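Q: Can I see a sequence and its folded structure?
A: Here is a first one.
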Amino acid sequence: MAWVPSHIEECEPIDVDAAIAATIAQDQEWMATSAYDGPHAEAVRRSLLVLRYLSHEVTGGLVAAPTMSLPEDFGGERNWDYRYCWLRDAALTLEALLVAGYSGKAAAWRDWLLRAVAGDPSAMQIMYRLDAGHDLPERELDHLPGYRDSRPVHLGNGAVDQRQIDVLGEVMVALEMSREQGMTGNPDSLALQGALVDDLAGHWREPDHGIWEIRAELRHFTQSRVMVWAAMDRAITAHEKHGMPGDVQNWRRVREQVRELIETEGFDEERGCYTQHDATSEVDASLLLLPTVGYCEATDERFVGTVRAIEEDLLRDGLVLRYRTESGVDGLSGDEHPFFLCCFWLVSAYARMGRVDDAERYPAWLLSLSNDVGLMAEEVDHEGTFYGNFPQAFSHLGLIRAAYDLQEAQRRR
């Protein structure tokens, strides 16, 4: 199959058998980098290949998914275009590749980031095009019926204009992990990171749209504040180890201030758990990331209480929701389904907490819900029906991290 513009002559057909053989050989060579032999090794290898295919070979950009407007709620309005590079998604993808030993991807993505964000740090977007372009306005394609009559069909993504203060934290965590694995320093990159952290230190108290890109009232999301803490923490480390420029004394002050707010405004003493934001007792699956970024230990009683609350509130047929849509926090009509990523976050939490038996049982069922070639969409129900865009980087990177966390837990046991 091929496509060319109508004013250009059709290209010669390729040798299909030779192309398939060459592709398989390249994949096998690439997979040889990973020495993973732990739990669910075949699924981990497949997920690594998915992340490879979601990365642009030339620009270094990493897309969230290669599809648009596959609905999270059949017949509803939760339909988004995911063919772009979210800094958060890309950073988490990079972390999964680094855990598996693919450090070569780090420099390419860092250089993509430099091209995308270069200029005024305060103008940093949360997402960009594959070529690092900034222009991706959202519009509705009213002439299309949508998958299973799910409208509107969206082209572009309006979240590009949102305020999401957690994003820089994910970027800083990934870049620090890259340096720990030997990525050489780049003065331009360090200067840019220092400027971005300085800018965040000046407006981190503002409410935002959060990791789930709500389209309602801005909130002081606990996970966003935790990632501000992580951004300051990794910036301090980068200054001490690599000479990253910036106001490090202010970074230390902000790190302590944001922790104080999290512990006072983002924790429900009655329930004994962290909360989705400072004006609710609801929980959010993103709180499962707290130990992963080093904010607390997984055995901390406050985190243990949070996992318990998530199990009570967010499990649907054994699968994990992002949050309860009936709370009205996201400003959208309709419902959604459990997130593959959140399910794998729960596996990682179990493994880090020492609940190894739970961490061992859960992934096999989750993987049974993937399709016949091991691919996963964004959301799933207990019957294995997929919802949302497909295949989803979030789902596959979550599997990789969970498998490595489980392997480490088994080693400790």
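Q: Show me another, different protein.
A: A second, unrelated one:
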Amino acid sequence: MIWYPYQQMKTMKAPYEITDAEGVYLYTKNQKLIDSVSSWWSVIHGYKHPALTEAIKSQADRFSHVMLGGLTHEPVRKLAEKLEKWLPGDLDYCFFSDSGSVAVEVALKMALQYYVNRGDWKRTKVLSLTHAYHGDTFKTMEVGDDEDYHFILEAYGEKKDVIHIPTRIDALEEAFGRFHEELNCFIVEPLLQGAGGMRMYDVSFLRRARELCDEYGVLLVFDEVATGFGRTGNRFVADLVLPDILVLGKALTGGYIGHAATVANHKVYEGFYADTPEKALMHGPTFMGNALACSVALKSIELFEEKDYLSRIRRIEEITRREMEGLEHEQIREVRILGGCVCVEVKDGAALQGYQQFACERGVFSRPFLNYLYAMVPYVITEEELVQVLGVMKEWFSRS
């Protein structure tokens, strides 16, 4: 029996069974649904894209996977080389893994060991944001701050090595003033906090964070698993403010297969580069650098460049702002729009009860959570399809 995610198995409603998918559409036996959430924000090119499918098939005809322990191969080498050229600044060293959560774990481990390798054992604390979400593995839950997802950690008692702050510059400066000698890194979802409520904040906060990290010798980590590849309207937020470590996942492979990268700058990498084995990064996911994943990631990046996706995302934002303008309801707390993301936050999550079925009956797959009704559509969506998605959201609030 399948154990489904984020569900009470005893009371869950049967999931929709998908028999096919193409473009922005998911197909059940009886209908087609626009996927308004891009399969958890990853399927940016839509489903069954011929170029991505061919990349997987072509590589599978050679081999699907070999371990990176003592072996290497062309797809992983080419992907590392592409990211080295494509990413900003000196983010040149790629450590691959099989999921965003694991990639964040790697980043946190890198940040801690970077200082241990220098003989600095005091820097055991991590600075993070309130409402942060970085994954569901144990260390990522610890740096997260969402009790709806991570309440299980209460069994361990108070967090001793993580400090959470709101996205206010005064709070940021106060935290660095108090804890800078103990911090190894400051980790953020830049500009857009995803599962913590699609919260959006200004780039000035990140610029000040970069200044403080430089001043106090703290590593800055950007978790762009969700925000990367255009979701905020920027190629990467790292193009605006340069972190020391960048984490990528989800859309890295166009949503075709799980894969992620933890990309370090020269300073971090050189902190591990030594004659002694004790200073090596002792980490190695079995499927890191998977050949199928690397091949499809390379083709995904090529499509992103060739099809001028940033222009597409700007158009998605323009249409969204136009269609959602003036949306008001007694239950709506706020409507937030950034790049390829729109979120309607309600005052009480009960106001969204039944929305998924309502949307399904109108040809849209949606998955609101807690107090948040949102859309993160594939970038290949047409204006007509996007208007349909947004129209269903507005219709929900115009029923009464």
